[in-house]
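Replying to the earlier thread about multi-chain prediction with a worked example.

Input:
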Amino acid sequence: MALGEPNMKILVVDDFSTMRRIIKNLLRELGFTNTHEADDGNTALPMLKDGDYELLVTDWNMPGMEGIDLLKACRADPDLAKLPVLMVTAEQKKEQIVEAAQAGVNGYIVKPFTAQTLKEKLDKIFERMAG
Amino acid sequence: MEQQYEEISQRYTEQLNDLAKKIETGQTESAEKILDEITRWREDSLFQELGKLTREFHEALQNFRLDSRISSIAEEDFPDARERLHYVITMTAQSADRSLTATENSMPICHDIKDRSRILREQWARFTNRELSADEFRSLSKDISVFLDGLDRDVPVLEENLSEITMAQDFQDLTGQIIGRVINLVDDVEASLVNLIRLSGQHILNDKNDSTAGEESQKQKKGKERDIEAQGPMVPGVDDEAEMVSGQDEVDDLLSSLGF
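Result:
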């Protein structure tokens, strides 16, 4: 399955079910229907390890394992090191954005965000992955 | 303490018996003197109790001041929490407005589609019953075409409005995080007040076993430090805006300055 194709497998990680539903709805609008959910890093990591996911969309601030630690865990795992990770978070401290960039995030969206922003960042990720 | 009370009640009993006798024998003046004396005793012990309470209160206040967590709650955390809760009100109000506006904009479109399809259906029923003249049929064809064009125009608007309603729900995540922080503060206040009660209780009971109080505030401190990493949503006027980005554009600028 190539990146950006409608059936690509996406994991959405957020501790608030409302936000997971919003992101899933937006992704569906953009044509992505193969979305799955987890409510924090601890639940997400095992799913990612044996799930053939092609994109991870994660929040930062979550009980249990936070998004930044999930990102770092992915980068440390040879199988997940290349997995595109898009952060969608209310964390907007500059040093946090820098930290996420250094940890190897592929896109960073601050909440509240628009459907257009999500589309732009996804397109950018797919573009880079293809090129 | 008990012995003191026994003495007092014995004094009262004696005086009251005396008072009853004086009244029975009509010695009003002496009776009044006894009454005055009883009142004076009463006032004396009231003053003593009041003095004791004042001292205890003073000591409790001293301890209250010593508990720096409480003063930082009063000086910083409460006003901060108030601002955050105001922000929650603003966000939920905005979200409700956005949803209601989208609904209000969609309703007339739905009504219009419903009305027009009803008229078309009636005409269509006449057509299938072969009741339409050639002219009427031409007019029906035109109406159907106009109706379909209208759908092409209206349905995307409805989709957009529904997306708007979906996006308006994003407040739940942000306000949830903010309220979560205020709940943590309430937990802190509760713990500090319990500490205070324990401290003042110790003064009254003169119990010196207060090692747990220190541990408690130590625990609160640690809990606070752990929060540094995840900040939660930025609240205008509360958080240091210089350290924060104000929106997606600034995030993009910052990332591209990092060669991203």
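The mean pLDDT of chain A is 92.

Feel free to reuse this layout for your own posts.
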